[in-house]
Write a structure and sequence with these properties.
homodimer; about 400 residues; 6-stranded antiparallel sheet; Immunoglobulin-like; Rossmann fold; alpha+beta; 8-stranded mixed sheet; 2 domains; about 30% strand
């Protein structure tokens, strides 16, 4: 047995890059984050020579922050800061003075002003151009339990490429097929889920936990089994950053054709691809679309321009307001298209937004227009602003209403 | 148009978490890493109050490092260190004094002794329990060009769950179906690819760049279109860390049933699942298996115990040596099984290992045994040790030999 132990040790040490040795053998490991029995959370960071170590993340109460852009000042909610104290062996520590509510959070450390992720937490999400560490506080019965992985049947999550005739190149989608799809002969309804500005076809399955939400809602019997398609709304891109043949793409203010009509114009070719590739119920009655922020704007315009395509539309913190008709034919004749859309009696228009979202005014104006015309819709208002926490809530609320 | 610009700015600033603001608007962005026109690479890290900033990674020449485990000293190759110098605005910088050869590299910074990834590089891989930043230096004609994404037809990459009757729970696989699979009616050969100790079903598609290698080799006509299945060899786990219903799993020395025979014993149920789920050519002639390190050991034992299953077997830096028959019936009667395996004339046994790999002696002993018995095999010896660079090379060499 000694030979086995030596060999296994050799494999573990030698078989890893030298980077990993530290995590496995570099003395007492720093555990971070830790959810304590009393519900507080402790964050730790080892930095013996640091002067100041802070943690920031959306588990902390928010503060108002002013950002100046193009000479204009804009106020946004930014998470507060927790200050770590140095303890033994240069390990800095911060424990929240409150029970952290069940939720999925993102956080980073600031070490002497420099933002770094938690080196002791393998769970990292890319949020546009930044990496953040992730903390999930699930609790049986709490909504965040939907975001956890449970021992329930799991759908298949695929990265799939379709050819865009409009763009002349292949583009990537994320496709969820529910548990049982592959062994069934049944046809399935389809939900299309759109990301916000700066996001891509990965965003809803990383930050959004959409496939966990679907697995869990379907397993509970609270949602119908459905195919879910996560598109890339940056129509000039093949795929998410690092997945392009054009190399590394760093998000900048030169946006990749996001809100100028091309994505909406090209959307039917995605529906056509999905209907040809998967066993779908290829009718308006069995199609839904939703999106967050820019994706909510896309959702509205796609729904209005193709009123025979989608029976259910969900606008999550939608970026309503870009209706300058000179930008694209997609944005022309808004009121006429809205009337034509409702004349066809869609099963559901669902609107969700946070009370402190900077887009609430334009959403209120849009709802006033709907109210004045007597157009029906469902509305949900939540705490907080333009944040992923809300978009996960909206998806969890929207999905159970579909295809019933 | 002003309204549009303001709205888009609002979306970009407000629509991101506050974390992302820094990357997009936090003053002049630090670019790191940068491949310079002369082929050197510059690494930068902003840390105005740091005392010492170093970079370490496998782009640097290696140094011998001694590790003590269970009272035994073991020597391993560890990458060297580059020391960054502080410049303006607290931005530290290091430029390699040499042209960095085309390859895929992993690196991290050490800031005052603390290991952190590059906050300006979104490309991060999890390597067992650690995160590392990734640098790809591709070059037309160089092997590393196989690891880059090109504008060629892309296969579909899926995370798929199968039910393990042996274990009594669902387990996750990564499955690659080649471009054209979904629209073809043809049946395809299947390659099973196994990871090393501490790895999982993600390892070969992140660190291994296996799906890029497959896409590119198939597009060049250098490999047959094939289905590729990446298993999880930690048989007591459902899935990779963070994908388990049992919560966060941190790799430790209590290994999740890795080299005690259960994975090999249960392997036929994976083959059965794949043959039932996909359009496979379900015959030995059209099946291949390969693996790195522990996965090479698994490959050998699966090939010997099920000599009618695989026609092609690839052992990459294989952890040969655990043959104590008391551990599992899988490891009994090795010589007899070896003879029976070769009596059935498999199309290929392929062995690859690095010259400085700590496993080269046991591989040499195994080859001596094959030579003495006149058993045929192909052999490749490369520079370096027990590292991903070699495993990517071996996969690139092995795949073109299959199903011809």
């Amino acid at each position: 047995m000694k030979k086995l132990i030596t060999l296994v040790a050799g494999l573990v040490i030698g078989g890893l890059s030298a980077f990993a040795q530290q995590a496995l053998y570099g003395g007492p490991q720093v555990e971070s984050p830790v959810i304590n029995p009393d519900g507080t959370v402790t964050f730790r960071y080892q930095a013996p020579k640091a002067v100041k170590v802070e943690v920031t993340g959306d588990f902390l109460p928010t503060e108002k922050v002013e950002v100046e852009f193009n000479g204009q000042k804009m106020a946004f909610d930014a998470p507060g800061v927790g200050v770590l104290k140095e303890g033994q062996n240069g390990v800095w520590e911060y424990t929240t003075p409150f029970k952290v509510a069940p939720e999925l959070y993102n956080y980073t450390f600031r070490v002497d002003g420099n933002t770094v992720i938690d080196p002791n937490n393998m769970w990292v999400n890319r949020d546009v151009a930044s990496l953040t560490s992730v903390l999930l506080v699930p609790e049986a019965g709490a909504r965040s339990d939907l975001y956890a992985i449970h021992a329930v049947p799991h759908g298949t999550v695929s990265k799939v490429w379709y050819h865009s005739d409009k763009q002349g190149f292949d583009r990537r989608l994320t496709v969820y097929t529910p548990a049982g799809y592959e062994t069934s002969k049944a046809k399935y309804p389809v939900l299309y889920v759109l990301h916000g500005i700066g996001g891509d076809e990965d965003a809803w399955v990383t930050q959004g936990r959409a496939t966990q939400i679907l697995d869990n809602l379907i397993a509970r019997g609270e949602a119908k089994p459905m195919i879910v398609v996560f598109t890339n709304g940056n129509i000039s891109q093949e795929a998410a950053p690092l997945e392009n043949s054009t190399g590394y793409t760093r998000p900048t203010m030169s946006l990749p054709q996001t809100m100028e009509g091309t994505f909406e114009t090209a959307f039917p070719e995605i529906v056509k691809f999905i209907d040809s590739r998967y066993r779908t119920l290829a009718k308006k009655q069995f199609r839904a679309i939703c999106g967050l922020s820019m994706g909510g704007f896309h959702t509205l315009n796609i729904s209005l321009n193709y009123p025979d395509l989608f029976n259910y539309s969900g606008m999550f913190s939608a970026a309503i307001g870009v209706t300058d008709p000179s930008i694209s034919p997609m944005y022309q004749d808004f009121d006429r298209k809205l009337a034509a859309y409702f004349a066809k009696k869609p099963a559901l228009l669902w609107i969700g937004i946070g009370r402190t979202d900077f887009l609430i005014q334009s959403n209120n104006e849009f709802r006033a227009k709907l109210d004045a015309a007597g157009y029906p819709y469902k509305y949900m208002e939540t705490d907080g602003g333009h944040i992923w926490r809300n978009w996960r809530i909206y998806l969890s609320e929207f999905v159970p209403l579909l295809f019933k």
